[in-house]
Every structure is written in C-alpha cells, then in structure tokens.
Specification:
Arc Repressor Mutant, subunit A, 6 helices, two-stranded antiparallel sheet
C-alpha cells in the first residue's frame, strides 16, 4: 500500500505558506518590541520606507507599499503627529510634499530591525541544522522570487 499522498495542490501549499508567514510576522512583531511602539504594522512599514528612501513623496510611498493614496495619507498623519516624520515642499514641484524621517524614527526602525534579525539568527541557530542551511538559502531565494512576481492580475 502506497502511503505517499503525492504532491499537494498549489492551493494547499499556498495556504500553508500564508499561515507560516502570518505566524512568523506575528512572532517577529512580538520579539522586536513593535507592539510597544503603539504603531500598526502598516504605519511602521511606511516609516521604514521613509527612513530608507526619504525624502520621498506620498505617491511614491503608496507605490512602494502597494496601497492607495488615502491609506498612505492616514499613516502619514499618525507618523507626523508622533513627530517621527516631517514634510516640506518639494523644491522641484512646490505642489508636492517630501517626507523625511526624524532622527528618532531612524533609531526606532534600526532598533526594530535589529530585534527581528537577532531573533531570527537565534532561531536559525537553534532549529536549523548545519546541513539544512543551504535549504534555508534556497527557501529565501524562492520567497524573494514570489515577492517579485507580477501576475498582471487584479488584487483581492
């Protein structure tokens, strides 16, 4: 009797991957201290983009985050009220505003990223055997490819 069920359908694999990523994201938020900031994951993502890419327009932020201009405006309002970002007129087009990070924002993002990386490094050291490290590298490459794919379809 063959007990090997064969390959799983892509939908089942997709659901397992989604569940695993959701659990890992939640764990990273907890381990990094993100909850203590009082900011949502979306707001922190926008803040990290401003730190990394700034000075930057709201339209560019919306494109980077794959969200609407309205969603970005809401996140920016919270971040401005928190003193984490500043806006100033674009010197090339005064109708636009450029967002830049306050030094405290740069420190906050660095602290959160360090916390996440530290947790992941410790977890990898604890649960991934040396002969499995290459598998982790392959999995990362596959995840990067999945993140970059353009299927040309609408969003849910």
């Amino acid at each position: 009797m063959n007990t090997n069920p064969g390959p799983q359908p892509s939908t089942a694999t997709a659901q397992r991957l989604n569940d695993a990523m959701k659990r890992l994201r939640a764990r990273l938020r907890a381990e990094s201290g993100q909850h203590a900031t009082g900011l949502t994951a979306t707001q922190l993502g926008v803040l990290a983009d401003v730190v990394r890419e700034g000075p930057i327009t709201a339209a560019r932020l919306a494109a980077l985050e794959h969200v609407s201009a309205q969603s970005i405006a809401q996140s920016l309002a919270v971040l401005k009220a928190s003193g984490l970002i500043n806006s100033e007129p674009d010197p090339q087009d005064g109708r636009k505003k450029l967002m830049s990070a306050d030094p405290s924002a740069t420190e906050l993002v660095a602290k959160l990223l360090t916390g996440r990386a530290s947790f992941l490094a410790r977890a990898i050291d604890q649960v991934v055997a040396p002969d499995e490290r290459e598998d982790v590298d392959k999995a990362i490459e596959l995840l990067e490819r999945l993140a970059d794919v353009d299927l040309g379809e609408g969003r849910i």
